[in-house]
Amino acid sequence: MTAHVHHFHLSLLIMLIVTASLCVLAVIIKMKNKKGPKLLEREKYNSTLTEKMEEVQKTDSNIFNIWPYVSKLKSAKVLSKKIKDNDLIYKVYRDSSQKFEHILLSTEDKNNFVSIIVNKKRKKTIGYSFLDSDERYLNKNIA
User: Fold this and answer.
1) Which residue ranges does UniProt annotate as crossing the membrane (predicted)?
2) pLDDT tens for residues 21-63?
3) Calculated CA dihedral for residues 121, 125, 131, 136, nearest 10 degrees
């Protein structure tokens, strides 16, 4: 009878080890497949620009909620954690069709920005891009 009990305990221990190993493996696979913020290729970024990008007031209540995405950018070290959230938004632009929103975020270099591009109609973030103050976006395409 003790041999059966010993065999039963050994079976439970093996099942516990196998289950724990599968859980650890699942967590590792999930972490490897975790998507970070998407850096847009220039072509994709340009496809979200129109002839007239209208500046939107930062206080506009219709601005897309970017803060979960900002956290991802900070975790990926795209944005510095040194800049306070209330100083982060530099300017907000919307295309004339009201489909895309470009939210320019300040960086530690005052001449460079991170632009978060949002598809407002689908209510989702498309990705981000790096801009400098010499780009035409900041200088010419403003309504």
Assistant:
1) 6-29
2) 998 888 887 776 667 788 998 899 888 888 788 888 877 777 7
3) -10
Backbone angles phi, psi at 119, to 5 degrees: -95, 100
Residue with tokens 């991802």: 72
**Token duo for residue 33:** 């497949």
Gyration radius from the chain CA atoms: 24
- Which two structure tokens, joined as six digits, stand for 58? 């930062």
Is residue 95 within 8 Å of 119, Cβ to Cβ?
Answer: no
Burial class (CB in 10 A: 0-12, 13-18, 19+), 90: middle
Provide the whole-model pTM. Answer: 0.69
Q: CA 77, CA 75: separation in Å to the nearest integer?
A: 5
Handedness of CA 42, 45, 49, 55 (dihedral sign): negative
Cβ pair 136, 49 in contact under 8 A: no
SS3 content of the chain, % helix, strand, coil (to 5): 40, 25, 35
Cα-based torsion angle of the residue sequence 139, 140, 142, 143 in order, rounded to the nearest 10 degrees: 140
